[in-house]
Amino acid sequence: MTDDAPWLVVGLGNPGREYAGNRHNVGFMVADLLGSRLGGKFGRHKRAVAEVAEGRLGFGGPKLILAKPLTFMNLAGAPVAALSQFFKVPVEHVIAVHDELDVPYGQVRAKRGGGEGGHNGLRSMSRSLGSKEYARVRVGIGRPPGRQDPADYVLSDFSGVERKELDFLVDRSADVVEAVVLEGVEWAQNKYHGS
After folding, report:
1. Which family is this sequence assigned to (predicted)?
2. Which pLDDT does position 195 carry in this prediction?
């Protein structure tokens, strides 16, 4: 793997206005923020069912390809695999940004590899990439209240109370993505997991 290989940052979510504010779409929110930080503009990619923006992290820094797959979450892997082939991104340089039930709301965790924890977007990515060794930035949405079905919970919008903190959470998640690219997963864990 060459260190000058580009990075593919995949924000996971569902396309369409009706899903835009869902907890399941926090990956799209982070990708949008990273796009505005890089000064990149999202557009449809010719080889993959995805919106893509490109830019460099810092002056002369690593190249980032930001992607929002436009298939539904369960089928996100195919556009991710197509983009990683098109841009020649090794699996070690792929980062999935996704909602995570097992992390408390407002916290962000980075890790490399491991299971999918029932997340269909990750399952689809692992299948299509033929590997689980990509990095993940896990954006905590917490567990559903009471007996609410987790599937209904992730497809519901953030609550009014959560929305007050959402910009901060998205901003912090974007910081974690940048830290993974520039310093590595372990460094990002040491910096962001304690708080």
Report:
1. Belongs to the PTH family.
2. 55
Cβ(84)–Cβ(8) under 8 Å? yes
Q: Does 74 count as an annotated binding residue?
A: yes
Catalytic residue list = 24
Using one digit for the tens of pLDDT, what is the confidence trace for 119-174? 999 999 999 999 999 999 999 999 998 999 999 999 999 999 999 999 999 999 99
pTM value?
A: 0.96
Structure token pair of residue 33: 């923020």
Instruction: Name 3's Cβ contacts closer than 8 Å, sequence gap at least 6.
Output: none
For residue 25, say whether it is annotated as part of any ligand binding site.
Answer: no
Residues 30-88: tens digit of each pLDDT: 999 999 999 999 999 999 999 999 999 988 899 999 999 999 999 999 999 999 999 99
Locate the DSSP E strands across the chain: 7-11, 43-44, 50-56, 63-69, 94-100, 108-112, 135-140
Question: Domain ranges in the chain?
Answer: 7-192
**One-letter identity of residue 118:** G
The span from the CA of 166 to the CA of 148, in Å, is 21
How is 25-57 classified by DSSP, letter by letter?
Answer: GHHHHHHHHHHHHHT---EE-SSSSEEEEEEES
Give CATH for domain 7-192. Answer: 3.40.50.1470
